[in-house]
Amino acid sequence: MKNIRIYLLITLAALVSTFAQAQDPLFSQFYNNPVYYNPGAVGLTPGLRARFTVRDQWPQLPADLRNYTFSMDMAERNIPGSGGLGLVVMSDNAGAGYLKTSTVGLSSAVRVALQDNMVTQVGIMTSFVQKRINWDNLVFTDQLNPVYGNIYETSFEIPTAGNVVYPDFSVGGIFRFTESSNTFSAIQGTFGLAVHHLFRPNESFIGLTSPLPRKLAITGDLIFEIDGDSDGLYFQRGTKKNTFKFNPGFIYESQADFKTYSVGVNILKSAIYSGVWFRNRTSELAKSNDLIFMLGINAPFTGQTRMKINYTYDFILTEIRTATGCSHEISITIELDDFNMFSGGNNRRGGGFGFSTRNRRSMEELQCCPF
């Protein structure tokens, strides 16, 4: 039985490696990875935001399936039509030295204010991707003995190329609005659509044609703020004791034959985040694959700067959980609301990086603090 279990784990790890070559990484905290999912989200909210995410996928497998992602975006309101600039740096592992994908992406967005409380942005991301594979660590089927495991030499002729490098392009759009009502001090809605791998780059290691499938990502969420001392349609930026935000949302991802969606809700009470989400590959919510729990904290440094730390635990609802374990994800976000790429207005020197001296930017622009 022990040999059978080891063989099954090896087979499962091989399947995971194959999956990783054809599918993009997914995140439970997609709401904390907006630049990765949609280049149109760059500069959607004022200031600078830096995010670092670590995801440990299926930790009980005898393989390294960790993902490390850093992203940053900066808004610029002093240039007409400018949304901002963004950066994504990612390292994704599929097995202990089997396959490693490194990505560096730069994105920019244009911004069109439809009304005082409505805005849309369209962005594009240009990425450079390197995939490296260690052929010596791979186990092929002709090496396996049903009783003793990996004891044979493979007849597979190992290619000389150990890595592939290619450019990649993604586009996306975002629509955001804010409203107020008698029940809520403010309501904010954000909806986005993005298409990744527009030109389907070839990622084959052995000289064949293996185009990367395009990915469609559709996101949406609503934020309801209660008892906030906000003025008009604009969310308060701090985390006062009476702050309460209710944030239902969803994400749908489709890439080749892999389709998944997540629905759930996050809550912010004072400075504490909590949330529960369902991830599924069918339209029947009762047959969900994962139940995701989120817990976090919003720690303000000043009224305009803060750090957010969020942790999610993906509880797998299927029998695969006994072999893979449940996934963990942690994100750290630093927000600087008043950071400008090019200071304007009160800056008499006429430009340069820095912080705006204005506590409130023009009310003609849509200014909404995210969840």
Describe this entry's structure for a reader.
The protein has 371 residues and is mainly β. It has one domain (2-355): monomeric porin ompg (Porin), CATH 2.40.160.40. It is built from three helices and 18 strands. The chain has a 14-stranded antiparallel beta barrel with strand order 1-2-3-4-5-8-9-10-11-12-13-14-15-16. A two-stranded antiparallel sheet has the order 6-7. The chain has a two-stranded antiparallel ribbon with strand order 17-18. It is globular and about 70 Å long.
* Strand percent estimate: over 45%
Query: How confident is the prediction overall: mean pLDDT?
Result: 82
Protein structure class: mainly beta
Number of helical runs?
3
* CATH evolutionary superfamily: monomeric porin ompg
Helicity range: under 10%
Shape: globular
Task: Give descriptors for this structure.
371 residues; mainly beta; Porin; 14-stranded antiparallel β-barrel; 3 helices; 18 strands; 48% strand; disordered N terminus
Helices and strands, with pairings:
Elements: H1 2-22, H2 34-37, E1 48-56, E2 66-75, E3 82-94, E4 99-115, E5 118-133, E6 144-145, E7 149-150, E8 163-179, E9 186-196, E10 215-226, E11 244-255, E12 258-269, E13 272-280, E14 290-300, E15 305-316, H3 321-324, E16 327-336, E17 339-340, E18 354-355
Antiparallel strand pairs: 1-2, 1-16, 2-3, 3-4, 4-5, 5-8, 6-7, 8-9, 9-10, 10-11, 11-12, 12-13, 13-14, 14-15, 15-16, 17-18
